[in-house]
Design a protein that fits this description.
448 residues; alpha+beta; Rossmann fold; Dna Ligase, domain 1; D-amino Acid Aminotransferase, Chain A, domain 1; 8-stranded antiparallel sheet; 5-stranded parallel sheet; 15 helices; binds adenosine-5'-diphosphate; binds magnesium ion
């Protein structure tokens, strides 16, 4: 691989450019008119403007991105996360244009992108899945029959969903009727696909996911778990590894199942198998994300493996250089997502000019960001502006380092969720490891 075009922006684009530089691979940034002063635009060897601020016309503009790749003679495209990363059509166009898409094959993305189809496949393979409809439901009547069979409460979920969107609970038939139509509408608007499926609502679960790497020669390994139970509106806010509820035995068991999932799907490159774990530590397959994940750095801190470099090596056809038993887990890692938002105003996004920006540092602290002093955060994109990752010998040390890092962090000119994150990591139940996916709503916001 000689030249990679990065079809993304923000901290993940910067993260990928850095890996390329270390591997002596040339980089091409694409940017919207709102991003001409963005860090990724400046850091790459070349940069091509692909359209106006609106992401539909720029970061989601397949035609312009492919044109930018051919103009700059890029031999591959890294899609990052969000935007086109899980778009099977885009991956297919790359394949047809002889541009290597750094991710799995387009038909695999297609298969796993429909969450109800992928559950159906995994169930056939003997993987434990959350009880629910067998595939998608065709109408309200079928939804009702399924809900009665598995028992309320149930979740209505968009088959094409992602980013926590298109998920609603129904406690009884009335709510089912109401939310069936709402989820259908949301799914149509957000994903242009109104297929929905039903799942038993698992009470007080933990979200535990397994990172896998699969090369193009049939080798698959897992890199352990990440606990992403600290969520708001089904969106992750803080992640850690190891999970306080996963011991070595459970890690091996979930890891083996995740490898089986990847093999069943014909998966290649890096991916994440998401599970819900119930109060009795039964775990169920939820979905597979076919891309690099926001929270990938905590796995890198604990294994010493650079996931983005592995993605590039795998896409170049190399074989994985290690076997499962050679992967060593060390210490404990935490990640906090810093968002430009106002928690007291229902987490309303708060873009604007960052007048002062000073980063924490020191042993065991990693910052992934694309912000700098004087930068103006555009209002067109996601509100996540930085990730603080800490690594300690154990959980207590990782938490202490996070406290110190959040205290040292200076961001002026805009509001962020920094203080909210600080309150999470000093919450006694969080410190005890006593939490589930309802932690933020219940413990932090006093809802439910
Ligand atoms: P992760 O599993 O990596 O934590 P998130 O769910 O936080 O991923 O999503 C990563 C980014 O991609 C977020 O900015 C999110 O809004 C966006 N995203 C994820 N899935 C989709 C989707 N299907 N459609 C639109 N945006 C998405
Ligand atoms: P997305 O594609 O948006 O990431 P997921 O299917 O991964 O959606 O679910 C996102 C989150 O919603 C999970 O991490 C979990 O907190 C919650 N969730 C999803 N399915 C269930 C379920 N059946 N029971 C309880 N919570 C669920
Ligand atoms: Mg998910």
């Amino acid at each position: 691989m000689n030249k990679i075009l990065i079809a993304n922006r923000g901290e993940i684009a910067v993260r990928i450019i850095r890996a390329c530089k270390e591997m002596n691979i040339k980089t091409v940034a694409v940017y919207s008119e709102a991003d001409k002063d963005a860090l990724h635009t400046h850091l790459a060897d070349e940069a091509v403007c692909i359209g106006p601020a609106n992401s539909k016309q720029s970061y989601l503009n397949v035609k312009n991105i492919i044109e930018a790749a051919s103009l700059t003679k890029s031999d591959s495209i890294h899609p990052g996360f969000g935007f086109l990363s899980e778009n099977a059509k885009f991956a297919k166009i790359c394949e047809e244009s002889q541009i290597k898409f750094i991710g799995p094959k387009s038909d695999v993305i297609d298969l796993l992108g429909n969450k109800s189809n992928s559950k159906k496949l995994m169930q056939k393979e003997g993987i434990p899945v959350i009880p629910g409809s067998n595939g998608s439901v065709k109408d309200l009547k079928e939804a009702m029959l399924v809900a009665e069979k598995i028992g309320y409460p149930v979740l209505l979920k968009a088959a094409a969903g992602g980013g926590g969107k298109g998920i609603r609970i129904a406690n009884d038939f009335n709510e089912l009727e109401l939310n069936y139509n709402l989820v259908k509408q949301e799914a149509k608007n957000a994903f242009n696909d109104d297929e929905i499926y039903i799942e038993k609502y698992i009470k007080n679960p933990r979200h535990v996911e397994i990172q896998i790497l699969a090369d193009e020669h049939g080798n698959v390994v897992h890199l352990g778990e990440r606990d992403c139970s600290i969520q708001r509106n089904h969106q992750k806010m803080l992640e850690e590894t190891p999970s306080t509820i996963v011991d070595e035995k459970l890690r091996n068991k979930m890891g083996n199942v995740a490898v089986k999932v990847a093999k069943a799907a014909g998966y290649t490159n890096c991916g994440t198998v998401e599970f819900l774990v119930d109060a009795d530590r039964n775990f169920y397959f939820m979905e597979m994300n076919t891309r690099i994940q926001v929270e990938h750095p905590i796995t890198e801190m604990r294994t010493g493996i650079d996931l983005v470099k592995e993605q590039i090596r795998i896409a170049a056809g190399e074989e994985l250089k290690y076997k499962q038993k050679e992967i060593i887990f060390k210490g404990h890692a935490l990640e906090c997502r810093i968002n430009a938002e106002i928690p007291s105003k229902n987490f309303m996004p708060c873009p604007g000019k960052v007048t002062e920006f000073n980063l924490p540092g020191g042993n065991g602290i990693r910052i992934d960001t694309a912000i700098y002093s004087g930068y103006t955060i555009p209002s067109n994109y996601d509100s996540m502006i930085a990730k603080i990752i800490t690594h300690g010998v154990n959980r207590n040390e990782a938490i202490s380092k996070m406290k110190r890092a959040l205290e040292e962090l200076v961001i002026e000119g805009i509001e962020t969720n920094r203080d909210f994150l600080f309150d999470i990591i000093r919450n006694p139940n969080f410190i005890r490891g006593n939490f589930d996916t309802s932690f933020i709503e219940k413990e932090m916001l006093g809802e439910k």
